[in-house]
């Protein structure tokens, strides 16, 4: 709107040149108008006294008024408060006023006495189209007001993202900024006014399956929101799933990876009663932070406490009810009179009726794996008060598994013929079928959960193991409104479920039976990937006793996330239980990462920089080079075969095998010597260096699913173009002659025995109160003699043997041998013995 002709033109800024007649004295961008003086535009200048007249519109928030402090004749109206809402903010940098030189500041440089204003307007020149907008501040304090550029960029991204969890976990700065701006009150108000058409935009931009392409849907078992995941939980579910998801994306398959926190059930209800229901949001954020630190690349990490969960779970229930697959029966439950409540399975402990294990839970025995009912336990105890519960009858609903058994067996026969199910998943499922399926209760006498939509049962909720797997569907529905294109599309979608072996029956029997009975063309699991258990040293993880490393502690060890990822995947319990060991972690870091993988990649890159000025030299391949390329290609083909079968541990060993071949190739050809010889030797040095650096570039892609941070570092150091970072079936010339590499630096750091021993003692066990973060103290004073004897020298000795086997340079071996001898000397002195003189060096 143009100013009324009756309003006099403002005086010109005295320091600025005359304004050409062609420049109209009107604001370039829309600005708010005074409701009492609609012909007068308002500029956000320095504060003055509020207008005594109330604003016409009650929706206008109270704010300091606007008055130019230097030009009383300017047509700025003091009646109108300046609204901080997004509509009043310019949407883009504006053209430059002739009187104001370009400057990336929020104040007109011609008027330095005027305070900075959010809209960056020259207070003396209303025709001035403002100073250029500053760049986006990527780290915004939630208590600070957003800048113009913050709001502009946020407004552009919000219709697509809507929350920061939609951004990849690697973009931490952007995630933090987007969350902070979204929490700003004006942005929250603007988000509520988002048109429905724009809300639909996100659904169309989400990752969706495409006919004719390979569409992979990946789920990781939902962790209980109040349980902090330990290393075994991480490798058993989310890390394994993330590694496979990253591989699928590298292959160019359309991939959706979803997970979230399971926030219903007795454990959550009990904690909620103690701390308030709002605490579940805090625990959800704790899980999200842990997985972000471990570089888990969810497409969406959600939660089960959503309206979509209620809607989808109740729809499946109604369909089962309508088709006659639900039974009503009396269930004998344990009730604790001291606590005044029915006890859910996990709050009852007793002796297993099958194997006699004294610490069996009320739903499953951890020793024999049998699913049991709490009333079957011998000598049951309430885990809350240690009282003896009594058996009380109550009415419940059951899923009629025997009636669905025929459908389940027919489906399993087809699925097992075409899909990848781990051996333990098949065995556990066959055991259930062999014993005969029995009706399974799907309701519980709780208040926290998805309500049962049936008269007579409205005071109950769904049992968590009927409800929780439906969380995969509802979390996807929160990601995109077109969730059915993933979950009701079995002809085009391959579903991979990742979990530990104790979750297998619910994913192979109970949940498939629920979906088969619902009869709504649901996508059922094609590939069920279950791990065995990861133990800690010689025992189990225990948060209360301070035994083992939990997700929120790993980053405090000083060991990088990618080293944790590597080691957990290296000992992934694929065929049998495995155990985390601090000594083995140090050994694998120092031998496999540092001296094998890191040594090869660093040497290949350093030879390019040191001998060829940072440019990849020309290569004239010989039979020896071709043999190396054949070995690498063979390992890569085996890598692909293993990854497609989700044999992650063995695939990682293929990668290490390639770098081992590379080290041997460099060691045999000795380019550091040949570069000093004649022309033929120098040409050979160039060929060896060029081949080696191309193998290193291939390793960057192969490593990406396992250690994405290291992969990115290699790509950066070698300056690998993004279009060449994909995975091919064999080795290709990624870095041709003439390609310039960047600065090459070490990828890994050595773990010292003293550092690892301190961590072993820190996480070796102690008593903490209530699961707090109190520093864990050892139960008994450490025996330093025993520690040195059983830990340090053997580890160092193994390291020396590995270095000799890898044929690394003699100087490196000698350094580690010297350390081994020093450790043995310290051990002898600690035990009161005279240090032995090494053989061959005894005094005569």
Number of strands: 16
- Unreliable sequence segments: 1-144, 766-790, 839-844
Indicate the overall shape. globular
Strand order of the largest sheet: 3-2-1-13-14
Structural class from helices and strands?
alpha/beta
Question: Residue share in helices?
Answer: 40-55%
Which percent band covers the strand fraction?
A: 5-15%
Multimeric state: single chain
Distance between the termini: 105 Å
Q: Tally the helices: what do you get?
A: 27
Helices, strands, pairings?
Blueprint: H1 148-161, H2 172-183, H3 185-192, H4 196-205, E1 215-220, H5 231-236, H6 238-250, E2 254-261, H7 266-275, H8 279-293, E3 300-303, H9 307-322, E4 326-336, E5 341-342, E6 348-351, E7 360-361, E8 378-382, E9 390-399, H10 401-418, H11 423-435, E10 440-441, E11 443-444, E12 461-462, H12 464-467, H13 471-479, H14 484-487, E13 493-500, H15 504-518, E14 527-531, E15 534-536, H16 551-554, H17 561-570, E16 578-580, H18 582-612, H19 623-644, H20 648-669, H21 671-674, H22 679-703, H23 708-718, H24 753-762, H25 784-790, H26 792-805, H27 810-830
Parallel strand pairs: 1-2, 1-13, 2-3, 13-14, 15-16
Antiparallel strand pairs: 4-5, 4-9, 6-7, 6-8, 9-10, 11-12
Question: What are the salient characteristics of this protein?
Answer:
single chain, 844 residues, alpha/beta
What does this entry look like structurally?
The structure is a single chain. Helix 9 crosses helix 15, helix 18 packs across helix 20 and helix 19 (623-644) packs parallel to helix 22 (679-703). With 844 residues, the protein is an alpha/beta fold. The termini are far apart. The strands form five sheets. Strands 3-2-1-13-14 form a five-stranded parallel beta sheet, with helices on both faces. Strands 5-4-9-10 form a four-stranded antiparallel beta sheet, with no helix packed on it. It contains 27 helices and 16 strands. The protein is globular and about 95 Å long. Strand 13, helix 15 and strand 14 (527-531) form a beta-alpha-beta unit. One of its GO terms (molecular function) is methionine-tRNA ligase activity. It is found in: Cytoplasm.
